[in-house]
């Protein structure tokens, strides 16, 4: 499972939550699902869009688990 930490880094975790970043040398370039869980700030849209463009495969699912105004994702994050 991939988890965003501090809105900056991506860490690979095993199913039981152990950091296994060193076990991966070449991560997949795109994922069928990306979970965004970072605090809202003035660069939230820019940061989130960059992560989605880089990691979400075409037709994939983006889950935004952050406190944002209603309509934020549909108005600002369409890819």
Strand content: 25-35%
From the helix content, strand content and strand pairing, which structural class follows? alpha+beta
- Termini separation comes to 23 Å
Molecular shape: globular
The total count of strands amounts to 4
Widest sheet, order of strands: 1-2
Strand and helix order: EEEHEH
| Sheet with most strands | 2 strands, antiparallel
Residue runs with pLDDT of under 50 for 5 or more positions: 1-9
Report mean pLDDT, rounded to a whole number.
75
Q: Specify Rg, calculated over alpha carbons.
A: 13 Å
- Please count the helical segments: 2
**Share of helical residues:** 10-25%
Report on this structure.
- There is one protein chain.
- With 79 residues, the protein is an alpha+beta fold.
- Helix content is 22%, strand content 29%.
Helices and strands in order, then pairings?
Blueprint: E1 2-5, E2 9-12, E3 31-36, H1 44-55, E4 56-64, H2 72-76
Parallel strand pairs: 3-4
Antiparallel strand pairs: 1-2
